[in-house]
Amino acid sequence: MTTPKIIPAVSFQTARTGASAKANELGMRPMQERVYDKRGEQYLLIKSPPASGKSRALMFVALDKLYRQDLKQAIIVVPEKSIGGSFMDEPLSKFGFWADWTVRPQWNLCNAPGPDEERVDPSKIKAVGQFLASYDKVLVCTHATFRFAVEQLGVEAFDNRLIAVDEFHHVSASADNRLGSQLADFIKRNKAHIVAMTGSYFRGDAVPVLMPEDEAKFETVTYTYYEQLNGYEHLRSLNIGYFFYTGRYLDAIEAVLDPAKKTIVHIPSVNARESTKDKIKEVEEIMEYLGEWQGADPKTGFHRVKLADGRVIKIADLVDDSDHARRGKVLASLKDPAHRNDRDHVDIIIALGMAKEGFDWIWCEHALTVGYRSSLTEIVQIIGRATRDAPDKESASFTNLIAEPDATEGAVVDAINDTLKAIAASLLMEQVLAPRFNFTPKSAGKLENFDYGPGGYKEGERNFGVNAATGQIHFEINGLAEPKSPDAVRICREDLNEVITEFVQDKSSLERGLFDEEIVPQELTQLKMGKIVRDRYPDLSAEDHEAVRQHAIAALNITQQAKKLASGGGAATGSGNEERANLSLIEGVRKLSMDVRDLDIDLIDSINPFESAYSILAKSMNEGMLKQVHASITAKRTTISPEEAKELAGRAVRFKKERGRLPSIISADAWEKRLAEGAAAFVRYKDEGRYD
Length: 692
What we know:
The chain is an alpha/beta fold. The chain folds into 4 domains: 5-12 and 232-404, Rossmann fold (3-Layer(aba) Sandwich), CATH 3.40.50.300; 19-228, 3-Layer(aba) Sandwich (Rossmann fold); 430-637, no CATH class; 638-692, no CATH class. The protein has 24 helices and 20 strands.
């Protein structure tokens, strides 16, 4: 057996304020109240973590639209039938609201028999038409059913109705995404109301969910992971780690699978390099490691396994789909509302493609995933399975068990792709869990306008303030460019993680940032990030491009430097104070803001965003392999491209305006020297006619 190398990535310690569960006089928790305050908006986008109460928030808004805004009907659209259970009847008046949420059985099409697949179900499409012609108020159906119904009935059939799309990250603006195209048609017609909900803070895809001009019409309500986790009553900590192993994962899983913890295990796809290609035998081998099989419970379908200590645990197998009746029994047992609050109902769930988004098992303490998942949204959803709050549940963790790169393989760089992707995912989860940043230029009075909230504070005359309730931290940064247009303001306020996602997933940036010892950080922070912003938002002005770039790199680098402090290393911009407590990520951000008296954008741009991630690789790879990777990356380096030369020349012009002289090719400053090289290359390419 091989022992996995433990690479802790993110640690979040909560304050357990209990605020997340506290309800107002209408029975609304803080996130739901925030959403309800925006109930009059025609287009509403809700970004909120799993388990924060999005389904009930929608019920409150939908009832108001139906009975106080005179909309005819509400259609709730979910990606799969199992999630439709989140919208069953709720006696909201019992908790103080003025109406109850009810769905007549014939209009909850997720409870109807039939396939839950991407294909036409004529009976359900017919039912949508019958519902639209009725006087009933609420219908629940899958994305697929809704798409086909819109194709047959036309968008005009849904005028003056609310369309609520759950798990909105399934939608995209791609012409191949029918639901995305249909939503664009609804927005163009402008006669329906739309509420979109997602538990993911980024898609991780190149195609946006909505085109910028459509997204700008949505009022966004964001409830952060910080607010959600910090406001729990029971959960004290969330830990995210990557475990690298050699050999078979089935030999390594013993080191990370603890039968004493309520766990969801996601085994690898049969196409993944971690897979043995026999998913059924993999489940059997996992159970054999745990103990002696005692048979299956005839009522629930759960396997019973006797551990070495004599305890018998119950395991739900969602991998074996050869017997539909058996798996149906297991699923029904897991969803049985009578056992929702029964901690002993099941101990371990083993799945492949199921038990992810919308799967509600509040007792889950450990989400163990084997093999890298290419979708960052999927990773967020899996982590969300373990972040429910429950009595006596003090800690939760996500573990990604990944095959260590093999230095004997021919294509060394290709062999570490999964590792690089895992690091990218780690960087993004740090952004998701970090406080929400509010950046402004350093100037008198700016900090005084910050909303500190109850318990918030400003550190004397320092460059930051904290809203203790929301976790929002305000940094003043010298030289920071402010967004001018409404679109740029919205991007800086709501979409920085989308920009950062694209940046850290750029393979060339990640490789060079990790392995190129000669990299000048500004080539990443200014050139690479600048290009991503321009390509992503082509309609913004040059001023706004620079403002978005600066805000995105500030959010990424401040989080990374805070993590460095939290893990015991000094910040690159720190004061040299040797007192290094074992801090959480959030405390690291606060520590950074105290260590650095005056932040400026040039200083932030001079930090390699991937320097802290390199330590993860250094711990997981031997020295020989690191040298091979370094050599491979160095060999791939090319001269300055025409596009890079043009960008460098533009920044050289800005350098001259700021300093009154051109950058010098013999400067000791690596970035100034690079600017001079780029300007010279630009002139050469221009003389050669390389530019139009």
